[in-house]
Amino acid sequence: MLPTRERLLLASIHDVSPRFETEVDRLLDLLRPYVGGRVAMLVVPNHWGDAPIVPGSPFAARLRRWADAGTEIFLHGYFHRDESQYRLAANRVRARFMTAAEGEFLGLSREEASARITGGRALLEDVIGRPIDGFVAPAWLYGEGTMAALAQARIAIAEDHLRIWSPASGADLARGPVITWASRTRLRLGSSLLAAAALRRAPIAALRIGVHPPDCRHSALVRSIGKTFATATRTRRPARYSDLLAKSASRT
Fold first, then answer.
1. Which of 52, 181, 188, 242 is 20 to 30 A from 195, alpha carbon to alpha carbon?
2. Residue 238 belongs to what H/E stretch?
3. Per-residue pLDDT tens over the stretch 19-28
4. What is the SS3 assignment for 165?
5. Contact indicator for 239, 233 with CB cutoff of 8 Å
6. Model pTM?
7. pLDDT at 3
8. In this predicted model, what pLDDT tens digit does every residue of 202-220 receive, in sequence order?
9. Structural domains in the chain, sorted by start
């Protein structure tokens, strides 16, 4: 078992958008007692094509204040909505059953993925006045085109369900499943509660916990999130994703 200082807790809020501003505030209030300002915000530039982040708007100003205060800002897709048509059966299954039409970057070509990454990155960097910290595909689903586009863009950090890596260097930064919750159906809600209970004590070097705006609408999920963070912080140090880059650099 690693000592507490070496066992990390990485917290993230997904789907940060003007559409979910109230829910994001509630999630920040829920997480703050456990991680303080050590949280990553996964920001969607234009959620489902009708909730754009407009430079100069009050929401854009809030993003900049969060970044200035040390919050890590990740690009989280562009629209978050998946409109791809899939030829491979395996990808159709992933797109249908792992997310509700939100795996935007699973079926994109390298050219389209690159265009959305470039456009989203430029928008967020203009808003926050600094480089973004990384990229996370909606629903943690990546296609071959997206993987090639990420490497070309030299994105510093990315993650999927099972690992964190650096597309810029190709290095793995951490491995282990992410704890997250789902509420679309009673079955998904129940199974995510069971998974969180099992994983929050797992001997994972860098434990990731990702929360979504709909989570705060369900009292059972709110209780589970609080218990998960309370349990994790007893034996882990709240950290930033960038700490993994520093740790990787120190090993080379």
1. 242
2. strand 237-239
3. 999 999 999 9
4. strand
5. no
6. 0.92
7. 65
8. 999 999 999 999 999 999 9
9. 4-251 (3.20.20.370)
